[in-house]
């Protein structure tokens, strides 16, 4: 079924890679022992709370903190003047984040830009006192007109958020634009027999991590220690250093266990505030967001408006595609237009492509990354249009995709020429899977049934990682990496280390270092951690093996080149190397001091070669045509993962992405009231699917090894959220015979479309 | 700082006294599944909390001599679910009360609290309205009874005078051939709030509906008793396919006509109005099927 040509890594030869080993952090998490940021406490600790703007757009004329400061129990009050300001005319980038925007996002400066924007923060002896003191802060606002919707924000005459942002020479909410071009789209469309052009809209959706943002910060003798929930302790350290002016060597960021991030914890909100409050008061300061604060003020992804045009010849070959993607950035620039415009057409071999993205600011919280940022929005429109073209051509939708699938050697509009990729395999497996052949239930009792398919792409990422592998005196092994473990990366690291060393994985402990105990490691994000950390862990472990061979050579008094490492033991390379009993890792470790000292090695790399990931999804739905309720009955994901180091966590990623995508398609949306305030800031009315809403989500792992990776890994975590929006939409069309061009397909919207259909008939 | 006082009296008289004395600053605590949430959200800041769960009369389910039931206002939904005879007589009331929240919430949440929260979307209320439940209220001036549909005055508001506490619900005895049902529309499958809720209680004699009451939730400022819908069902014959379509259509139209909903984050006016009729048909069918077995 799958391509297993990578000789050194043939799955059959592996003892630990590909095994469903017990997750090192599992017992702690299911018994409640795992320490999350909100579990931390310190002697003398006080609490911080944030005062947030009630207005979606208002100039801050003055802030009077006197009454709050005088309130019994209050230890400090801070405002934007306590945060380092980055001038608007000079970009200071940290990864994809610009400090000009970050310093204004963590604390409103000139203006409050969304309802929920922090305007001040208080530290007090209790959380309650801090919250009460916030209400004593007097903010003089000049309320301004606001705009939230992306189309509205782009219209001439819309309230402009930032007068320093100009588009075509005039103040505008369009903060940025990018384009990808390949060939000549006009010439391409001229050759098309079928051209479909459609407009699509999606609502802003939140990452929905179960753990609200939390941190504890202590400052002692000018040295700060931060315990926080994030997707990257080094990001926390660097951003806090920028925003407070404290040098990085005086900040130690300790990653707590993380209760989900999905991209939403790749930036910081509370940490710099707690840090400044701790510095001012000399007391450890703890801050924990409520769920309401998470919804109001942390980053959901963009709402969007896009227009897609695709053309094919009558024999089913795509000849041209164009797309315009307008994404809501929120209060400050930085929406994922690269993901939308770059991924939308990436699965296909299309000779002529024009794809552009517009980054549009509006009065809601600044977007944060959300699992394949932008790609679900881009692929939603493309995959719905693909479905329409297949129908117009009377082709099976999978056959149509297969005919146009990108493969090795194809140049993608967003830049790369593809190396060996596994997209074709995902479609082929979907086509021959029992799900695709299974008959749908017949319409009955007001219930209609449909099946949809969709594919998707995500770039994946490499980047900086560091690892240290130490052999303990008893022959067990400790591995330290620098990545918060969100998707089971400790288990994967243990599998890899055990495999390379040839020892039982239970002898390997994997820890996540803090910023002072392990070298720089970039964020857990971009589907990069297992990819990148596997590279540094493998190289570190290989270096350890070299040392182990040297030590055995020393004990045997032979040349290190005459020693091989096999099944966790040093052995003479052959008869002419001498006759010696093999030395186990434990035996060599016991003699470490006598043979040269402690045994360990580390590696730090900026990894490259993380090739793109592809998936194809099948979805069956039931639509209650009288209530407008859509339920997913069956769902199967097919994904090329390169190599599944730990299949359970690969499947977990595939299932999780599908679940989030189904929510995005059917029920999740930010709803703003007429005052520009979020009207559904709770899980009650922000409707993520609950377990009983979903069937078992099936996943088919396809392994086409990445030739650029020692284990063949491709990123896994983000692709699963790319196809579901269109897969569900296409299934609903198949059930109702009516297409939806906006998400979510909530019951009132479905019923409204059904009523229109009945009226038309 | 504001302090909250808490009392848990053993008798109703003490509870009424404490509640009345606080002159509006007090809140009654039954299961607390609305009160505590609203306090946490900063919507309510009561000076006094009067916990009624220590009062025997309010935490008991009593079977009356005439075959009816008296349900204390502080009885949790999970307790009703475990009461076999109540469940047989009033399956709709019991299932409505147990649609509220999660399993954990159902161990605390009460029909009394659900009514007094004053939400038009409370699940147990339309079922109680359909059932013809009588609510007993005690206040500084004594006891009085009200039909359940007369208790709510508007969202979050009740037709109770200061110091009055809801004590219990009395469900009437069931003639042979009676049953009830409750359905709600929620976008999810659980853990949600009714976009529309519909309770139907009916009695059948020899295949003909002889009495019917319909309660509708989340379609007006208060839960509605839709008398026209009940009337439309009375006299209809029940055939092999269930209730006759003409009667159902008429009752559904009466439900839609009774709706005075709002557009909000949970549903639109058009949606709620249509779905009220859809739910009436489905709920009445279940109630009729159950009544046929009794």
Please provide a written account of the structure.
The complex is a heterodimer of chains A (761) and B (294). By secondary structure, chain A is an alpha+beta fold. Chain A is 28% helix and 25% strand. Chain A is built from 21 helices and 30 strands. In chain A, the strands form 8 sheets. A 7-stranded mixed sheet of chain A has the order 3-7-1-16-13-14-15, sandwiched between helices. In chain A, α10 packs parallel to α11 (375-392), α11 (375-392) runs parallel beside α20 (724-736) and α19 packs across α20 (724-736). In chain B, the strands form 5 sheets. Chain B has a 5-stranded antiparallel sheet with strand order 4-5-10-6-7. Chain B contains 11 helices and 16 strands. In chain B, α5 (91-97) runs antiparallel to α8. The chains are: A alpha+beta (761), B alpha+beta (294). The A-B interface holds A 128-129, 132, 292, 626-629, 631, 666-667, 671, 679-680, 684-685, 687, 689-690, 692-693, 746-748, 751-752, 755 and B 1, 41, 185, 187-193, 195, 264-268, 270-271, 274-275, 278.
């Amino acid at each position: 079924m799958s391509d297993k040509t990578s000789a050194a890594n043939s799955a059959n030869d592996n003892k630990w890679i590909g095994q469903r080993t017990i997750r090192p952090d599992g017992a702690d998490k299911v018994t409640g022992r795992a320490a999350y940021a909100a579990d931390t406490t310190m002697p003398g600790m006080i609490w911080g709370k944030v005062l947030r703007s009630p207005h979606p757009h208002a100039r801050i004329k003055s802030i009077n903190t006197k009454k709050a400061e005088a309130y019994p129990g209050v230890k400090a009050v801070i405002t934007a003047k306590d945060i380092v300001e980055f001038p608007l005319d000079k970009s200071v980038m940290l990864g994809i984040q610009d400090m000009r925007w970050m310093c204004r996002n963590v604390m409103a400066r000139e203006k409050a830009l969304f309802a929920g924007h922090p305007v001040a923060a208080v530290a007090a002896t209790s959380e309650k006192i801090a919250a009460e003191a916030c209400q004593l802060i007097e903010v003089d606002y000049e309320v301004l007109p606001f705009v939230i919707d992306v189309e509205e924000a782009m219209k001439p005459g819309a309230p402009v958020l930032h007068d320093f942002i100009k588009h075509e020479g005039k103040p505008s909410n369009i903060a940025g634009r990018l384009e990808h071009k390949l060939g000549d789209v006009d010439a391409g469309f001229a050759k098309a027999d079928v051209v479909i052009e459609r407009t699509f809209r999606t609502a802003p959706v939140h990452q929905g991590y179960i753990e609200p943002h939390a941190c504890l910060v202590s400052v002692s003798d000018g040295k700060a220690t931060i315990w926080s929930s994030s997707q990257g302790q080094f990001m926390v350290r660097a951003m806090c250093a920028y925003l407070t002016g404290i040098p990085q060597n005086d900040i130690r960021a300790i990653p707590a266990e993380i209760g989900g991030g999905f991209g939403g914890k790749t930036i910081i909100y509370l940490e710099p505030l707690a840090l400044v409050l701790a510095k001012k008061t000399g007391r450890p300061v703890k801050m924990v967001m409520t769920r309401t604060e998470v919804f109001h003020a942390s980053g959901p992804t963009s709402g969007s408006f896009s227009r897609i045009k695709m053309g094919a010849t009558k024999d089913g070959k795509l000849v041209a595609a164009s797309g315009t993607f307008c994404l809501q950035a929120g209060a400050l620039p930085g929406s994922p237009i690269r993901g939308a415009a770059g991924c939308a057409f990436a699965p296909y071999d299309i000779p002529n492509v024009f794809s552009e993205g517009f980054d549009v600011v509006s009065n809601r919280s600044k977007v944060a990354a959300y699992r394949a940022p932008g790609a679900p929005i881009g692929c939603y429109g493309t995959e719905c249009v693909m479905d329409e073209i297949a129908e117009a051509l009377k082709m099976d939708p999978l056959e149509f995709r297969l005919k146009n699938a990108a493969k090795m050697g194809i140049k993608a509009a967003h830049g790369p020429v593809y190396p060996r990729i596994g997209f074709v395999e995902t479609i082929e497996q979907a086509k021959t899977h029992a799900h695709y052949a299974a008959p749908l239930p017949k319409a009955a009792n007001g219930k209609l049934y449909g099946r949809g398919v969709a594919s998707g792409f995500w770039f994946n990422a490499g980047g900086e990682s560091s690892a240290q592998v130490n052999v303990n005196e008893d022959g067990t092994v400790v591995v330290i990496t620098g990545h918060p473990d969100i998707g089971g990366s400790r288990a994967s690291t243990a599998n890899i280390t055990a495999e390379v060393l040839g020892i039982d994985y239970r002898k390997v402990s994997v820890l996540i270092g803090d910023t002072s105990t392990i070298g720089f490691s970039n964020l857990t994000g971009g589907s990069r951690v297992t990819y990148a950390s596997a590279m540094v862990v493998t190289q570190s472990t290989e270096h350890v093996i070299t040392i182990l061979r040297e030590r055995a050579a020393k004990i045997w008094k032979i040349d290190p080149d005459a020693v091989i490492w096999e099944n966790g033991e040093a052995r003479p390379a052959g008869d002419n190397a001498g006759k010696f009993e093999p030395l186990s890792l434990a035996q060599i470790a016991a003699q470490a001091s006598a043979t040269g000292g402690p045994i360990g090695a580390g590696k730090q790399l900026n990894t490259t070669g993380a090739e793109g990931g592809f998936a194809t999804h099948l979805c069956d739905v039931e639509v209650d045509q009288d209530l407008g309720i859509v339920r997913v009955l069956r769902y199967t994901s097919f994904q090329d993962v390169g190599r599944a180091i730990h299949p359970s966590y690969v499947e977990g990623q595939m299932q999780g992405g599908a679940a989030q995508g189904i929510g995005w398609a059917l029920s999740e949306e930010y709803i703003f009231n007429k005052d520009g305030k979020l009207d559904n800031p709770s899980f009650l009315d922000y409707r993520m699917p609950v377990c009983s809403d979903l069937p078992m989500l099936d996943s088919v792992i396809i392994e086409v090894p990445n030739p650029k990776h020692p284990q063949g890994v491709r990123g896994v975590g983000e692709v699963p959220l790319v196809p579901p929006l269109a897969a569900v939409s296409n299934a609903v069309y198949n059930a109702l015979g009516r297409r939806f061009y906006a998400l979510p397909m909530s019951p009132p919207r479905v019923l409204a479309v059904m009523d229109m259909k009945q009226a038309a008939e | 700082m504001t302090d909250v006082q808490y009392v848990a009296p053993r008798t109703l008289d003490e509870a009424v006294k404490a509640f009345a004395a606080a002159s509006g600053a007090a809140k009654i605590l039954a299961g607390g599944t609305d009160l505590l949430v609203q306090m946490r959200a900063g919507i309510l800041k009561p000076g006094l909390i009067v916990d009624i769960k220590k009062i025997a009369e309010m935490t008991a389910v009593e079977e009356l001599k005439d075959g009816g039931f008296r349900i204390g206002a502080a009885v949790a939904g999970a307790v009703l679910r475990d009461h076999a005879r109540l469940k047989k007589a009033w399956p709709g009331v019991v299932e409505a009360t147990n649609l509220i929240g999660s399993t954990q919430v159902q161990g605390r949440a009460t029909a009394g609290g659900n009514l007094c929260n004053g939400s038009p979307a409370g699940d147990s209320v339309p079922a109680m309205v359909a059932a013809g439940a009588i609510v007993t209220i005690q206040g500084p001036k004594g006891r009085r009874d009200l039909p359940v549909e007369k208790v709510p005055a508007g969202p979050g508001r009740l037709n109770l005078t200061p110091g009055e506490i809801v004590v219990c619900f009395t469900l009437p005895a069931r003639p042979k051939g009676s049953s009830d049902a409750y359905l709600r529309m929620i976008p999810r499958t659980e853990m949600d709030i009714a976009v529309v809720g519909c309770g139907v209680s009916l009695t059948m004699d020899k295949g003909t509906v002889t009495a019917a009451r319909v309660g509708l939730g989340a379609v007006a400022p208060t839960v509605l008793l839709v008398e026209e819908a009940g009337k439309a069902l009375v006299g209809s014959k029940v055939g092999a396919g269930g209730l006759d379509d003409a009667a159902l259509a008429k009752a559904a139209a009466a439900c839609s006509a009774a709706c005075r909903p709002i557009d909000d984050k949970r549903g639109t006016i058009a949606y709620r109005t249509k779905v009220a009729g859809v739910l009436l048909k489905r709920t009445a069918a279940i109630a009729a099927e159950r009544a046929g077995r009794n």
